[in-house]
Every structure is written in C-alpha cells, then in structure tokens.
Amino acid sequence: MTRTQFALLLAAPMMLALPRIAAAQAPTNALCPVQTDQSVDPHIYLDYQGRRVWFCCPNCRHKFQENPQAYLANLPPLAVAPTTPQPTSQPAPPTARRPMPSPEAFWGKQAPPPTVAAPPKGAARLWQYIGRFHPIMVHFPVALLVVALLSELLGAMRGSQLFLDAARVTVVFAAFTAVLAALLGWSAAEFGHYSGAQNELLLTLHRSLGLATAGLAVIAAGLSEASHRPRLAKLRAGYRVALALAGLTVLMAGLFGGSLVFGPDHFRW
Predict the structure, then answer these.
(1) Element (H, E) at 150
(2) 167 and 46 in a common domain
(3) Which tens digit of pLDDT belongs to each residue from 1-55?
(4) 127 and 79, same structural domain?
(5) Domain count along the chain
(6) Is pTM, for the whole model, over 0.70?
(7) Where in the sequence is the domain holding 254, given as residue range(s)?
(8) Closest CA to 133 of 188, 179, 174
(9) Per the domain annotation, does 91 fall within a domain?
(10) Do the Cβ atoms of 43 and 26 come closer than 8 Å?
(11) How far is CA 195 from CA 62, 68, 146, 189, 205, in A?
C-alpha cells in the first residue's frame, strides 16, 4: 500500500462525517424557544410534527415536550427544517402538487416575532455570568465532603491519625467550596427559567439543601478545629454529626439538581 492510499484510507471516515458535522452546526432556529434569550446548542434538539427544533439545554427540551403549544409562538415561522427526506421518485405533475401551507396555517395562528429579553447590564450582567460556573463548582463540595466523611470514619474505626488529619484538612476546603457553590447557585437560579410546579419544587429543594450543606460544612469545619484544643475535645462528637449531615445533604442536593437539569425522569430505572 502506497503512502497516498494509506492517507486516503485514514481520511475517508472524516470525509464521511463532514456532512453530519455541518448539519449539526446549522440549526434553523438560532434562539431557544423556551429561554428566548439563549442561543441553541446544535446537539440538543427534537423532532416535532416532522420538523426539527433546537434548544439551549436538555431541561428546555423536556419543557417543550411537556407543553409544546406554550413555546411554538417563540419559533420563527417555518424556521425549522423537515427531518423526513423528500421523495426521490418521479415527481407528480405541477398541477397535482399540494401547495405548501402558510406559516399561519402550520402553527394554527398568527405567529408573532420571537420576543428576546434584553440582556442585563453592569453588575447584574456580572452576577448572571458568574452563575454559569455553578455546575463546575458543585463538584468540589460533593467530593470533598464525602472524602472527609469517609476519612473520619476510617480514622475512628482504625485509630489512624493519618485519616483523622486528612479529614481535618479536607473539611476546611469542603466548607469553602460549599459556600462558593451556594452563592453561584443562587445566581444561576435567579436568571434561570424553571417554569412549572414540578421544576419549581425541584429548584426549591435543590436550593434549600445546597444552603443547608454550606451551613453544615462551615459548622463542621469550625467544630473540627475547635475540638483539637484539649479543653474543647468534647466537641468532636458534634463535629462528626455535622459532617455526616453535610455529607447526606450534599448528595440529596446533587440528586435534585440532576433532576432539575436533565428532567424529573433522569434517575428513573
């Protein structure tokens, strides 16, 4: 096999994938019909009545599936491309072709132009922007609190000072990141769109458990440092209770947060 043939063999899969990549990057509605101020993700879409609609996140796609009529007016008329291929057989005579329906006939009513909310400015824009880092920051308190709890348990069961010291250091970092994640989450919830009673309930539970986690983590870190003083050694039991509760609440907050982002059926068997 020559070098040219070998290069063509390697390039063939990429050449075949180019049409699919180009199609995935060309959504026909630039703005999400649910969150009308957000740009769509070319990889998040669904097919509705033979037409493809793109969204900015899986949660918006789930909302559209529950009640499409509430968001159809936010789509530009005939802006979504049909997903069923057109027949390639011999076309019918021009007089036998069915006329294309008008936008009003397709949507069943006069489709107004999409309403786009004005983006915030100044400090409000900065507050909205930092909320986008909440999904990144939440991984730290989840991991650190679980590691601190396991280290404390192993240290108590095996009498290992190494695990006890690891838990002491880890719980301090867990408290710091839990407070920061709670602040970023408050911003994300303030500027997010979580309509519907079910999503509002999930948001309330997620937010309450996140704040409880931050508070318990700070209490656990404070009790941990205080219990290392000889006169306050009796506070170690309270520290372990606070750490166990923080580990439980952070896992529950993650459960409701996943259901809020990916839909309430995300964890269903």
Answers:
(1) helix 139-158
(2) no
(3) 566 555 555 555 555 544 444 445 568 888 989 888 888 888 888 888 888 898 8
(4) no
(5) 2
(6) no
(7) 123-262
(8) 188
(9) no
(10) no
(11) 11, 13, 32, 12, 15
